Structure formats: structure tokens, C-alpha cells
Amino acid sequence: MAERKVTVEAEVGLHARPAATFVQAAAKASIDVTVAKPGGEPVNAKSILMVMGLDVRQGETVVIRAEGEGAEELLDELAAIASAP
Amino acid sequence: MTVAGVGVSPGIGHGPVYVLIASVPEPPEGATYTGDADQEKARAHAALEKVASDLEARGIRAGGEAKDVLAAQAMMARDPGLAVGVDALIDQGTAAARAVYESFGTYRDLLTSAGGYLGERAADLDDIRDRTIAVLTGRPMPGVPDVAAEPYVLVARDLAPADTALLSKEVVAAFVTEEGGPTSHTAILARAMGVPAVVAARGATTLTPGVRVLVDGAAGTVTVDPGEREVAEARRRAAARDRAIGAATGPGGTSDGHAVPLLANIGGPGEVKGALEHGAEGVGLYRTEFLFLDRRQPPTGAEQETAYRAVLEAFPRGKVVVRTLDAGADKPLAFLPHQGEEPNPALGERGLRLFRAHPEVMAEQLDALARAAVGLPAELQVMAPMVATVEEATWFTEACRARGLHSAGVMIEIPAAALRARDLAAAVDFFSIGTNDLAQYTFAADRQVGALSALQDAWQPALLDLIAAAVGEHGTPCGVCGEAAADPVLACVLVGLGVATLSMSAPALPAVRAGLAGHTLAQCRAAAADARAQSTAAGARAAARAALPGLDALGL
Questions:
Q1: How far is Cα B402 from Cα B408, in angstroms, rounded to an integer?
Q2: Per-residue pLDDT tens over the stretch A44-60
Q3: Which of A16, B177, B417, B518 lies 20 to 30 Å from B164 when distance is taken between CA atoms?
């Protein structure tokens, strides 16, 4: 299982536009991908409602995990979105 | 057939009726389906997809920020987690509509418990849920269409600001509501948009959707299925009225040269253009709440300065009256948490009272105002809302003086302030009467309660008496910046009572200018005396009209 740990930089946290962009990118992939707060329950990264429900604020860290073909590239893309200011 | 109500925004509107669906009922608990589960799931998925693609399409038409917002809502309707929840419930025998309702409920709770920004998204979720249930149960979609082949007449029990935020004159020919009064949101919004409106029109929501109606926003009538000649005649009269009103130009004043500066109420720099187009001589009420509402952090001093300066620059020769932040339990701010819930927000810690609890917020705002005015020729006046006593007025004036703000005033919205205007006059440079709140407190009638709208009528003799008391003989200039100033008949009466300036939503300015220009100061004074001699609001209005013959010629 590949994973990335990233700090969310957007002022609005992983809500609104950043969350939508993040979920859109995750939904394009054919493999499963999850996102969690450190130590928290992972949720489906393709679900905007679950991702918003995590309530990730600016400065908080998230762990993104995926397994399967293209996992590394997908995680790089998602990590870049999550850490974009 | 004609439905009668109260005309609150003049003009003639003609078009098909669109009845706003207030809400979609909750599908009953324990509802089951007949047929097989896969079919029921397919129905649910198809409904969610229809809602998603509909939202997406609306976003693409709207463009800009709305496009992103609606695209995110479409994603919510297509959420895979939601679909899994719906399927599981249908497998247990729950009907599709109920399954949708319960699945959304799970996420709704998740967002609500997070509070703040996410809590507000719960309303978006409810909207998507209701739309989906409407599709599944064959009901009309809730909400207001924001595009239409031809402008429609929007009919509703009452309208919330959220219902109407996206609407424009190109989409809506007229507003008709069963509830509401002259100061309801519908009335204020309609006047700001320049769209005719009739409120308190009993039975309006029973009109058949799609039937053509003729709305007369001055007479307060809604004529069902009017003939072509009737529509043409109404339009001809409205055009004649517009021409007569358009002929009155220049600064506001009576026909014998008593000057009454006509100013605009604005809620941000974006409304300056409309104010200038309608000939505003300045700004009589610059509401500053737009800078503070819906934010987690207060605006910076620099941000405030820019917003104030933009308006001061637009009126180099005029006055600009800025009202300091008017917030409280009625208009809560995220960064100024309230100490517990208030049972009566209108009677609570709002306006200047909030500043006394958080003086740093006022200090920042007054500093920003002082900086914004540096080097500009416009006359900046600053006033505080919700002032009741001399002590409060003095406290505010001193805070303004300490920053070199030369003109400090207070709103008169509380009967106590009106009754002791002579005392307050010694402490301030000017007054501005907020007639909506003054009526609310005079009649102990909450502005938000439609059933009490008759008590919100600015023609109530008690209110006229309080306005006369506020104007007094103390010599401190007293303006009116409530919706009362937007009524051309009442505007003449206010001038007759001694009010120095009138401020209103910009589209109302031309009619008020024409009304004043058609009468002498003596006529206005006589109309005011006749109105105050009456014992009812209707009597006061009729008496004033009879004393102002120039209004008939203007079709007002």
C-alpha cells in the first residue's frame, strides 16, 4: 500500500473548491484510494461528502493511501492538490 | 378575475405565473416499494443523476463562481458513498424516496456536527435531497428558475433572500406574495431590482401555474388572463408615468426651492453604479455588514479602508453616511461569538451595543474610515445603529472625534431616542431615522413576522408622531434612511415634518424626486399636518394624498 502524508495549505482547508478538485482527481482513477486524518478512520477519497465530512482545516495533515496500478502517480497528483495553497 | 394586495414596488409586469414550491414533504418513515430491488435502485440512481446533470447544466449557463458551486453540488448528488447507502436501504425494503432521504440525513448530521462552513453546506445537501425526492415522487422541482424563455411572474407564500439571490429583471416580470408587507425582503428586493411587486395578496398561490397575469405594482392588483388591450393600456399608463418621472432632474427639492438632498442606501461599492445612474446626490446609508458577514476572520483595516474609499471617491461633491457594523444575534458573526442564545434577537446585544462589548472591532472600523477619507473631498459622516441613550451617543461621538472624524451621528430607531432627541442632539452632529426598526420597536412587532406587517406600516400615526419628535426644534439635521423615504407620498410628508435628507434604494429616487418637485414646502407641511391628524394608517395616507394634488399628474 502506497501512501503520502501531506499538510493542507489552502486557507479554506480541504473544503469547497480544493475538496472538489481533490475528489474529481480521485474519481478518475480506477483503483481504490482513501484519505484519513493521522490515526483516524480512512474514508473513500472519491466521495465528496466523506472528504468534506473529515473537516480538514488549513495546517492539518492528511494521509492518502492507494493500492494497485498507477497508485504512485495518483498519490503524487492528489498530494499536490491537497498541499496547494 | 383579480387578486388584490398591497403594491410595494410600482410598475407593470406581465407574464406567466410561476408558483414557488415552498418545500418537498418528507417521505413517510417505513415506506416500502413494490416490485424488485434492482428496479427501485435504478430509479433512485436515475433521479440522482438527473439532479446532478441539471445542477451542472445550470452552472454552465451561469458561469463564474456559480459554475464551481453548482459543479460541487452535482458531485454531491453523484457521491459514491451516498449511492451505497441508498442501495443498502433499498435492499432492506425501504422505498427509493425514503432511502434517499435517510442517506442524505447521515451526511447532513456529519456536516452539521462540524459546524461553521460545513454546517452551512447542510442546506445545500437538503436542496439536492429535495430535488431528488421531487423527481422520484413526480413533484415539481423546488426553487426558482433563474433562466426563462420569457420573464415570469414569481408567486410565493413568502420569499427568502436565498430564493431570489440569482434573479434579475430579465427573468422576473413581477413578484407576488401572499404574506409580507412594505418592508419585507420581497418589497426591498423588488424595489432594488426595479421590478413591480404586490404583497399580502391572499390566495395568490392558488393561481394556476402558467396562466398569464398582469401585475400593477402601484395599485396592488394582479389581473388573471388579461386581454391584449388591457395589457397595452396598462403599459401605456406606466410609460406615461415613467416619462413624467424622468422629466424631473437635478438635485432634490420642492417646487419653491427648498433643497432636500436625495441619497442612496447601498450595501457595498458594487451598488455605487446604480446609485449614480438614478441620480443619487450622495449616500445616506452605507451598510458595512457585507464586509463582516459569512467570515471566520474579521476584515483587516486595509480591506475596510479600500471598501470605504471606493464609495467616497464615487461622490466627490456629495456626502457619504457610513453606518458602523450593525450585527448581533439577528445577524450573527462567526468571529464574535455570542454569549448564549438570545430569546429576542431584535431586543438584544446588537448594533452599538455589540461594539460596547467588543470595542476593538469599532476601533478598527473607525480607524479605517478615518484613513479612507484622507485627501478626498467627499463629506464623510459616520453613524452608529441601535442607540437608545445620550450616554451611548456621547460614547460614540467621542470615539469618532478621537480619530478626527468630524461628523458623528446616530440612527434613531428606538422610541427612547426619538422622544429625547433634544438631549441626543447636543451630543451628535446629525440624526438618521431608520423607519423600519423604529416601527418594529414602536409597535413591539418583529419585522420578520409577516402576520404583523400591518404594524410595520410607516403611515401609522404613532410613527409619524415619533418622527416629528425626532426632528424636533433642536436644529440638529435629521434624515430618514428607511424604506419610508422610498414612498413618493410619504417622502413629501417627511419633508413636511422637517426631515432634511431622504435616503432610499436607488431605483426609488426618480419617483421621489418627481413627487417632491411637484409640490411646495407649504403643501408638504399641510400634508404632514393632515396625516398626523388622522387616527389610522390608511386615513393618514389618504389625507396626505388629498393634500398633494401633484401626485395624480405623475400617476403615483
A1: 11
A2: 999 999 999 898 888 89
A3: A16
> ipTM value of the model?
0.91
Read off the amino acid at residue B91: D
**DSSP strands (E only) in A37-75:** 43-44, 61-66
In whole angstroms, give the CA distance from residue B438 to residue B460: 11
CA angle B167, B168, B170 (to 5 degrees): 125
Which of B109-115's residues contact partners 24+ apart within 8 Å by CB, and which partners?
A: B110/A49, B110/A53, B111/A49, B111/A52, B111/A53, B114/A53, B114/A55
Best mutation site among B73, B100, B111, B117 for testing chain A: the one with the most A CBs within 10 Å? B117
Question: What grid cell was written down for B530?
Answer: 393632515
Query: Which of B72, B80, B118 lies at the smallest CB-CB distance from A55?
Result: B118
Closest chain B residue to the Cα of A18, Cα to Cα: B72
- In chain B, DSSP finds a helix count (H) and a strand count (E) of 22, 16
Note if A66 is an active site residue.
Answer: no
For residue range B469-506, list pLDDT tens digits in order: 999 999 999 999 977 998 899 999 999 999 999 999 88
Task: Name the catalytic one among A2, A15, A48, A60.
Answer: A15
How many residues are listed for chain A in this entry?
A: 85
Rounded CA gap, B450 and B462, in Å? 20
pTM score: 0.65
Query: In the sheet that A43-44 helps form, which strands lie side by side, from edge to edge?
Result: A2-7, A61-66, A33-36, A43-44
Give the count of beta carbons closer than 10 Å to the beta carbon of residue B346.
Answer: 18
**Beta carbons of B431 and B424 less than 8 angstroms apart:** yes
DSSP E strands in B178-326: the ranges are: 197-199, 212-216, 221-224, 262-266, 283-287, 319-323
- CA distances (Å), B163 to each of B170, B215, B332, in order? 16, 20, 20
Q: How far apart are CA B316 and CA B294, in angstroms?
A: 31
CB atoms within 10 A of CB B268: 15
